[in-house]
TrEMBL record:
Keywords recorded for this protein, A-Z: Transferase
Alphabetical list of InterPro entries matching this protein: Acyl_CoA_acyltransferase, GNAT_dom, NAT_camello-type
Organism: Pseudovibrio japonicus
Superkingdom, taxonomy of origin: Bacteria
Entries under Gene3D superfamilies matching the protein: 3.40.630.30
Name the UniProt record assigns to this protein: Acetyltransferase
Taxonomic lineage: Bacteria, Pseudomonadati, Pseudomonadota, Alphaproteobacteria, Hyphomicrobiales
């Protein structure tokens, strides 16, 4: 198991992970946005490899007031095995090293907000159907002191 920087040839693996997590965790309409994000990547983005295969991915970006976690996901059949936690911790550690005074924000769904609460995030707001029908947008924030 290892975490490494995303490479262009990881695109298909990342899209497969996305598709396996739709429609519960991502609205299928977001697929093209995710593809464009990866094809024009300007932010740090990482993949989690297990047995030589990409099984998770996630990145972060600089927002106007704080850092933000971006497009975090784990292969659907591997949920609950610690891969997502490892990816979040890795990204938070990188942010703490490079931007120690920055809070970290994420917009996620109602299905994963409890996971992020365990990582020190607090819910700021919930927008019903924010991503699509039945998929609410939960805005969360983690103070910089928790790095």
């Amino acid at each position: 198991m290892s975490i490494r920087k995303y490479q262009a040839d990881d695109l298909d693996s990342c899209l497969e992970i996305f598709e396996g997590n739709a429609p519960k965790f991502f609205d299928p309409s977001e697929r093209d946005d995710f593809r464009r994000y990866l094809e024009t990547l300007n932010d740090p983005y990482f993949v989690f490899e297990q047995d030589g295969k990409v099984v998770g991915a996630g990145g972060y970006c600089q927002g106007p007031k704080e850092m933000g976690l971006a497009w975090g996901m784990v292969r659907c059949d591997l949920h609950g095995q610690g891969i997502g936690s490892a990816l979040v911790r890795y990204r938070l550690e990188r942010i703490a090293q490079d931007h120690p005074d920055q809070a970290v924000a994420i917009d996620t769904s109602q299905h994963t907000c409890a996971f992020y609460e365990k990582m020190g995030f607090e819910t700021l707001s919930i927008k019903e159907d924010g991503y699509g029908p039945g998929l609410h947008m939960v805005l969360m924030r983690r103070p910089p002191s928790l790095a």
